[in-house]
Amino acid sequence: MQLQLQTRSGESQRRLQDGHGHAEKLFLEQVWWPAVGRFDFLPAEYPISDFKDGDRYLDFAYIRGTHLVCIEIDGYKAHHKDINRWQFADQLTRQNHLILDGWKVLRFAYDEMNEKPRRCQQLILQMMGSWFGEEQADPALSLEEKEILRIAGQTGEPLLPKTISQRLHISRNHAGKLLRKLVQMELLQPASGTTRIRSYKLSGKHRSYYG
């Protein structure tokens, strides 16, 4: 946050100082950091020009290469009590224009981040696997191994050898070998079982590929 403040001025700097409240900090602490482990490419209160030729600020923007992801944090009251129907319609129009300008949009509810942070973390992992999988993959991996990591990031669920066998159309024995190799490379880790691993999940090391 301090690094971003050094590069801002005027209204952009003021919003970063004053507009970043409890909900946004909760997202960083409970969702983004546990899922990704780094804050690279994630400016807060990111300024853009909106369809009315003014300025608006995204809660967070995740910008990597040509990919533009808007992340908005929503409180229930802000959308159902403190705005009227025309303000609500204006918000939808703004979001539509954002999408037409090439942005992907993710929205997180405060209550879900607070009470079910793991579900929100899985959504971030799915985003990384679906939209940035090719960029973050280790070039030393085979196509099958890259696909396994992509599936893991997409689903957010523990992987079974049977599932990989069916998805990749390979034998269960071969699927098990690939999964064990990824564990040895510390890209996967056991999700259940110790002496005999029954299911697998992404490891902390794999999160470094998310930037």
UniProtKB/TrEMBL annotation:
Residues in coiled coil:
none
Q: Which Gene3D superfamilies match?
A: VSR Endonuclease
The record's listing under SUPFAM superfamilies reads:
Winged helix' DNA-binding domain (SSF46785)
- Superkingdom classification of source: Bacteria
UniProt xrefs under Pfam families? DUF559
| InterPro entries, per database record | DUF559 (IPR007569), WH_DNA-bd_sf (IPR036390)
Q: Which residue ranges does the record assign to the DUF559 domain? A: 58-127
Q: What is this protein called?
A: DUF559 domain-containing protein
What organism is recorded for this protein? Paenibacillus germinis
Classification of source organism:
Bacteria, Bacillati, Bacillota, Bacilli, Bacillales
